[in-house]
Amino acid sequence: GRGTTLLEEKAFPSGAAVIVMTAYATLDTAVRALRAGAYDYVIKPVIHERGQYLDVSLRLHESAHDTVEA
Fold first, then answer.
1. Mean pLDDT in each 10-residue stretch from start to end of the chain (70 residues)?
2. Do 44 and 21 touch, CB atoms closer than 8 A?
3. Cα–Cα distance measured from residue 12 to residue 63, given in angstroms and rounded to the nearest whole number
């Protein structure tokens, strides 16, 4: 898919927390995205509880990033 292609082309800044969201998930695309550097892989539709997960996921990434810089 387009998201994994962009990851493979390194179209994002180094250290960016890229979360791939798809409505057409397969094990192959999930593995491809994560190997290409995705921070997470989420299957749509994202329900409210899953949205909270994304918020926590991003905060964990920010916290880890802040720890590395400190």
1. 81 83 89 90 69 62 56
2. yes
3. 20
User: C-alpha dihedral over 7, 10, 12, 15, to 10 degrees?
Assistant: 100
Which residue from 28, 25, 47, 26 is spatially nearest to 36, judged by alpha carbons?
28
Dist CA 44 CA 64 (whole Å): 26
Residue pair 45/23 in contact (Cβ under 8 Å)? The answer is: yes
d(C-alpha 32, C-alpha 66), whole Å? 27
**What was the pLDDT predicted at 70?**
45
Interior angle at CA 55, CA 1 and CA 22, nearest 5: 15
